[in-house]
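ENTRY TYPE: paired fold submission
RECORD: A
CONTENT: sequence, then structure tokens
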Amino acid sequence: MSELEERVAAIEKHLGISKQPQVIDWSRLDVNTPIMVWDYPENERLQFFERHHKNKGEFPFIAGRAWVHASLETGIWVFNAEGRNPWPEGVRVRVRLRGGATGIASATDFRWEGQNDENSVVASCAIRLDDGWVYE
């Protein structure tokens, strides 16, 4: 590592900047968050997967069943009936607001606790992970 690279690394460490990807915290999923789980190799996941909603608990999500891989299922709309964010940090979502507007941003950027005004989230769906985030 060159002297410049060492300096940059020291500054990043001091500022808390990490180049390591951040891992999705599966324990933060809401009960109705759509996920895909599978045991097969990565290249076969589109042929063999199961859709589940998260049960209480952590990875592997489904009581009595161990899964090797998991991801959020994209494009499935989740209605915000309970006024809480169903997505963990690090997920980019599309939302529909009560006033009819739509938007795309990180899930933590929206107001989920409903005030029943035009800016409260009515429904959302995952699009992808934010940059720098991974599933496992």
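RECORD: B
CONTENT: sequence, then structure tokens
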Amino acid sequence: MAGYTRVGDVTRWLRLRDLSCETRWLWLALFTDSSRVIPGLWRGGIGAMSDLANFDRHQTVRCLDQLLEHDLIEYDATHGVLRLTELPDAWEWPMNGSTLIAWWRRFLDVPACPVRDAHLKLVWWLIETATRDSTLRAGRKNEISADIRETWEATFGQIPMPTKRRQGVKRLLDEDTSTPVQPSLFAASPVPTPVQPILSAASPNTTELLVRHGVDHPGERERDSSPDLGSGSSLSPESGEQVPDQIPEHTPPPGPPPTPVRVATVIPMAESEFAIRRKMGDEIWDSLNGRRNALAMELGLDPPRVLHDQLPGRRALAERLRESGDHARDDADHVLAICEAEARASGSMQWFAGCMFEPKSWAFKLALTLADAVQNGKRVRDRQQSANEVVGEVFADLARQEQLELHRGDTS
């Protein structure tokens, strides 16, 4: 897909009116993301959506719930497929059969699932609506071109158009993701059974924190002597029984003392994977800006502009770190070192920027060594010098021809 999305005035679309600001932001990020499959169809998990919108996971889930409640999206968490059920306009439509074939190839990369197949309706809506609008403006007959219709029958037309059905789930919290081992990912934490900690001297020199389930404290046996509200009255107006003012204490039968349970050491909750990855990305991005400044001073160049964190390269860095998993930091440091060596050898800063984190560039840099990077930089410098010499010769020839023409004009 192109690095931009052609849209109309989204702010006037009434379907977004009742959404919160952060939900609108997530919807707009999904709508305009350059890595989407085709217009309105997006592939990825909640972590990828969080990186895309610069949210944490809780914000993302909350926004997805609101979008699901308003029937603006459908989401298949199992296959990681999300689709927008409606679009504000049909500006981004396949204008010819070649574009439709490119869409079809990308469509086949998505796992087959009901959410993916349901998107056929929106693709056909784009074609019909855009054709109608364009033909009305041109004053022609409202008719889809034969090229698009034949291409549709050979591609998307092979998939049966799904019947009308319920738009996914209404809330992510309603989805039952529990297993016998793993509880539901979205369910509320269960309320723990209250336990009573007591201190017991296990030895003369140590004191252990013990928990006894179902054991009364000595102080718990003392009841409050103040009368309770309604004490001495009947359970109900119709019953003739009276509730005694004091309930006799139940004495447990004799038996072996309960075994004390040692409380496990409380371990602080570790940072989430998303928070760790975001912190790592910020450190790498700051390191890139620092290296650019230092290299510019070393080469005697003007100070470069600061790369702010809203550039596409920052989002590409987040995607590469997520894909690299446990090797994310090592891979990023290697790519930075390779690009810095190339920039130093070529004497140019043009490629020492966020574009190194794009998929093709990232994969290419990972395969290089520092020696390869130096050779590449030298080749770039030599080509630039040769190009400058050629351009200089061309301008010199133009200047000589201009002088000759002026001289001929003077002699005539």
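NOTES ON RECORD B: The two ends are 60 Å apart (CA to CA). Strands lie at 41-43, 73-76, 81-84, 196-200, 208-212, 261-262.
STATUS: closed
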